[in-house]
Amino acid sequence: MIKFLDLHKINLPYQEALHHKMQEVIDKGWFILGEEVKMFEKSFANYCGMKHCIGVGNGLDAMVLIFRAYIQLGILKKGDEIIVPANTYIASILAILQADLIPVLVEPDSKTYNIDPDLIVEKITNKTKGILVVHLYGQLADMDKLNAIGKEHNLLLVEDAAQAQGLTFRGNNTKAFSFYPGKNLGSLGDAGAITTDDDTLAEVLFAMRNYGSEKKYYNEIIGVNSRLDELQAAFLNVKLPNLETENNRRRQIAKRYISEIKNDKIVLPFCGDFAKHVFHLFVVRTENREHLHEYLKENSIETLIHYPIPPHKQNALAEWNNLSFPITEKIHREVLSLPISPVLTDDEVSKVIEVLNRY
Ligand SMILES: *Cc1c(COP(=O)(O)O)cnc(C)c1O
């Protein structure tokens, strides 16, 4: 069986270093906001070319905290509208709701599946204050156009980079990352981070993730407990140096899939420039998805669906269920994610290609 994602195999090369780090943290006996968190924040900020990195509990919290910090600073206020892609993982939308802001959904470009910049302007009202950009599946959204729209309409841009660790971003917008175990840089539990160039925002965020406190037992603002765990930070310190190599391996596999899969029934992902994609997922489309999924399973290839139901059709967002986003809905009906990970072997890649070409 070719697994969709073999986390055991992915972490195997790091096993010894991870054990060593774990022992180190246990021996030190400092488990909250210690040296490992500081070191990771410094390394990740450097790696991203940003001034600050704030380690937080997970990717969702990273986004919620960014919005709440902007509210704290008076740059956003409750009830402001934030443009967000309709075609995203629900976390992007939940983050806006949890910060008491109003998500305004916009359809994706049918080639890249990322938000279509040309459809944004018609959604802008006098309450619109920001855009939450998502780099879906690891592909850079159309940042030239998005940054220009932001500038022209005085909108705050925030980026959901949960699927895009290691991507070369455009511009210094504040970004949210998740290090959920299956992400390109994955921890061994929940973890997340924010990167920003804004000193004031960083100061608020450092306090907000830790009960609103900079000095222990002195609370300056109303905060939450969403600290990057010391042990997870230690694991991330072990894995970060290899992220670039692992992303390049993902690109290599994607290049082979794109050039060697030849089947009229399968729509391959659009990738104009491999430098603008870190292939967190390799997503194809087909009219009869369940059939292809079953066929691949019979041929010992595991695939997943990202995602089966769009956010506006979820029970949790019942008041939106009657809205219509045809491009988003079509994508959700047709997508299927092929195995792609740095530990997939050349033979396994060949097998996936061969089986798909026979379909
Ligand atoms: C994984 C993911 C998140 C959330 O990350 P968590 O760490 O699980 O909270 C947010 N947005 C997108 C697009 C994601 O893929």
Automatic annotation (TrEMBL):
Superkingdom of the organism of origin: Bacteria
Family annotation (Pfam families): DegT_DnrJ_EryC1
Record carries keyword Protein transport: no
Active site residues per record: K183
Gene Ontology molecular-function annotations: pyridoxal phosphate binding; transaminase activity
Entry-annotated residues carrying N6-(pyridoxal phosphate)lysine: K183
Position of the signal peptide: none
Gene3D superfamilies named among the record's database cross-references: Aspartate Aminotransferase, domain 1 (3.90.1150.10), Type I PLP-dependent aspartate aminotransferase-like (Major domain) (3.40.640.10)
Keywords attached to this entry: Pyridoxal phosphate
GO biological process, one term: polysaccharide biosynthetic process
CDD domains linked to this entry: AHBA_syn
Family: Belongs to the DegT/DnrJ/EryC1 family.
Protein name per the record: dTDP-4-amino-4,6-dideoxygalactose transaminase
Organism: Flavobacterium dankookense
